[in-house]
């Protein structure tokens, strides 16, 4: 869209911002420009239902810290597609975090600003929830008035469900412990949907306050799997704001309250607003010190948590599997050469002498029961181990080897002609000591040998 174009009765003056769902323009009424400028938000996607929800919530809200709705409608583009839009009160302001950096904010200023956000939430919670409270959605005007904006993720009583994911859309660092636990427990359940309560907006306000005063996010308030898996690395402990910046004790206490694990212990938005207003009035001189003196562009941050081990890529895993398989095959061959074959030769020699002594013809082969040498040698030959015979370029056959596993096979195996094979990584023919099948190399998979059921005489 270009400046001067019309969307309904509104004339676009300037593009001022964009988000994942919409583009915001400064606009005025084409026929009555003297009424001033407004904010027009146009959907990115055709027929986006979030705009209907946001417009409905704003039409029900009337609060000095929430932009007033002026108009709503649908704009038809030249391609015949309809895009919803809404027009709101124009707010000339700076995002909360940027404002704090520019003004080197003190704890008292922070509490005054946060109390206004809490008042906006108090009015919102009489109808529903905001569900995307964060510094980027809080604008500070030149007179110090705060406006809570962007109700695109909101929910109110009677609104038709839009969320298809386990948890509603939002910004990750601001999710409550209860929300994180629910997502962890139900991540594989497509029918599960988190019911975002008002206390989660209060938690997000606590995260906003923590970042506002320290310049960094607190770690997640929970690790859903740490109690079940003692060896799992736990998240770092939350560093008190006063250790990261000059935060007054009154503000620090209220931040800890908003970030409590249990939602009911945080208090309502109205209770927090009253507590913040009272603390801003009664706090001592320490509350007037800049929270981060001289750190306008670079805020203090806690020590970085330990970096978890890097997960190997699929290619690296396959390469490691190939190496492990080669090593195991080599060990099997070495074991046969050092232990099994000499035992077989000694045993055959003993049987030959006994047969000669009894006047019998020497046997060419003598088995050792279910766990005998013959089966071991067959397994080695089948796996391509180099013991007298080398298989080069052989195709997988429908006839199984002795002791080869039957389907169904494990996740690490492949079923071919009803029997289990192990793919040799990503190796392709020629397979050398393996077997070829549909452009890849395999070796047969065998059941573990059973315990011997007979002993030598």
Structure description:
With 457 residues, the chain is of the alpha+beta class. Helices cover 31% and strands 16% of the residues. The protein has nine helices and 16 strands. It has helices at residues 49-60, 96-103, 107-125, 177-185, 198-214, 249-258, 269-282, 314-357, 373-382, and strands at 6-7, 10-18, 22-29, 38-43, 69-76, 82-89, 93-95, 128-129, 138-141, 146-148, 155-156, 394-395, 414-416, 419-423, 435-437, 440-444. A six-stranded antiparallel beta sheet has the order 1-2-3-4-6-5, covered by helices on one side. Helix 3 (107-125) packs antiparallel against helix 7, helix 6 (249-258) runs antiparallel to helix 7 (269-282) and helix 8 (314-357) packs antiparallel against helix 9.
What's the arrangement of secondary structure elements?
Blueprint: E1 6-7, E2 10-18, E3 22-29, E4 38-43, H1 49-60, E5 69-76, E6 82-89, E7 93-95, H2 96-103, H3 107-125, E8 128-129, E9 138-141, E10 146-148, E11 155-156, H4 177-185, H5 198-214, H6 249-258, H7 269-282, H8 314-357, H9 373-382, E12 394-395, E13 414-416, E14 419-423, E15 435-437, E16 440-444
Parallel strand pairs: 12-15
Antiparallel strand pairs: 1-2, 2-3, 3-4, 4-6, 5-6, 7-9, 8-11, 9-10, 13-14, 14-16, 15-16
């Amino acid at each position: 869209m270009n400046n001067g174009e019309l969307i309904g009765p509104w004339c676009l003056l300037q593009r001022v911002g964009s988000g994942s769902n919409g583009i915001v323009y400064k606009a005025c009424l084409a026929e009555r420009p003297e009424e001033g400028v407004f904010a027009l938000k146009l959907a990115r996607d055709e027929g986006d239902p979030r705009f209907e929800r946001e417009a409905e919530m704003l039409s029900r809200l009337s609060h000095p810290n929430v932009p007033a709705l002026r108009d709503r409608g649908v704009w038809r583009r030249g391609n015949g597609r309809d895009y919803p839009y809404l027009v709101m009160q124009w707010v000339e302001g700076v995002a909360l975090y940027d404002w704090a950096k520019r003004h080197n904010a003190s704890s008292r200023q922070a509490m005054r600003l946060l109390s206004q956000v809490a008042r906006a939430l108090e009015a919102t919670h009489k109808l529903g929830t905001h569900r995307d409270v964060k510094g980027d959605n809080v604008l500070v005007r030149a007179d110090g008035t705060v406006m809570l904006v962007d109700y695109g993720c909101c929910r109110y009583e009677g609104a038709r469900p839009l969320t298809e994911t386990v948890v509603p859309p939002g910004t990750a660092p601001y999710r409550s412990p209860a929300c994180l636990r629910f997502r962890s427990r139900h991540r594989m359940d497509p029918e599960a949907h988190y019911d975002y309560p008002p206390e989660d907006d209060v938690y997000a306000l606590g995260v906003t306050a923590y970042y506002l005063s320290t310049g960094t996010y607190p770690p997640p308030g929970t690790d859903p799997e740490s109690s079940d898996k003692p060896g799992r690395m736990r998240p770092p402990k939350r560093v008190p704001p006063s250790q990261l910046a000059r935060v007054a004790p009154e503000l620090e206490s209220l931040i800890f309250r908003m970030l409590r694990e249990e939602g009911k212990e945080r208090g309502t938005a109205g209770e927090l607003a009253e507590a913040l207003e009272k603390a801003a009035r009664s706090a001592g001189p320490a509350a007037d010190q800049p929270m981060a003196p001289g750190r306008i562009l670079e805020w203090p941050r806690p020590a970085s948590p330990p970096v978890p081990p890097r997960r190997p890529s699929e290619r690296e895993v396959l390469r490691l599997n190939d190496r492990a398989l080669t090593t195991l095959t080599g060990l099997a061959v070495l074991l046969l050469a050092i232990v099994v074959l000499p035992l077989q030769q000694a045993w055959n020699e003993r049987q030959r002498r006994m047969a000669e002594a009894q006047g019998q013809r020497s046997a060419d082969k003598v088995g050792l029961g279910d766990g005998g040498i013959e089966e071991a040698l067959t397994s080695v030959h089948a796996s391509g181990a180099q013991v007298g015979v080398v298989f080069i370029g052989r195709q997988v056959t429908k006839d199984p080897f002795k002791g080869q596993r039957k389907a169904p096979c494990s996740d690490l195996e492949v079923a071919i002609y009803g029997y289990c094979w192990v793919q040799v990584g990503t190796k392709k023919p020629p397979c050398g000591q393996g077997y070829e099948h549909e452009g890849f190399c395999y070796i047969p998979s065998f059941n573990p040998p059973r315990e011997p059921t007979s002993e030598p005489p």
